[in-house]
Amino acid sequence: MNMAAIVLFCVIGLIGIISGWLIWAKKTLWLLAGYDPSKVEDKEGLAKFAGLRICLIGICFAFFPAAHQLGNVFMWILLLLFLAIVLNTVLGCRKFEK
Q1: Are 50 and 93 in contact (CB under 8 A)?
Q2: What is the structure's pLDDT at 49?
Q3: Residue numbers in the chain where pLDDT is lower than 50
Q4: C-alpha–C-alpha distance, residues 19 and 31, integer Å
Q5: Considering 17, 30, 69, 77, which has the largest number of Cβ atoms within 10 A of its Cβ?
Q6: Three-state DSSP class for 98?
């Protein structure tokens, strides 16, 4: 993997980490796609749930180049972890709706 790809993955991962932190710590729920304040029952819970998982997605994304260098097994494990976190986030955010 060339240096430009490594930097790109790290920058995108950092953007994910910062976005997750803003959602979690600063409660900037408007960053979530499809967020409708009138449909959310527990805004604090949604902010913590979604923010932490978006941080984890950003961390996974930033570690993709390192997993690629370690070998295919590590890359597949990280990819499956990434997909599991995304799926958990999408399905889990529904429990905060009215």
Answers
A1: yes
A2: 97
A3: none
A4: 8
A5: 17
A6: coil
pLDDT of the residue at 18:
97
Contact status, residue 13 vs residue 61, Cβ threshold 8 Å: yes
Please tell me the predicted confidence (pLDDT) of residue 98: 83
The span from the CA of 94 to the CA of 89, in Å, is 9
Task: Enter the tokens of residue 28.
Answer: 């900037």
3-state secondary structure of 40: strand
- Taking the CA atoms of 29, 33, 35 and 40 in sequence, report the sign of the dihedral they define: negative
Kindly report the backbone phi and psi dihedral angles of residue 35, in degrees, each rounded to the nearest multiple of 5, phi listed first.
Answer: -70, 125
- Predicted pLDDT of residue 61: 93
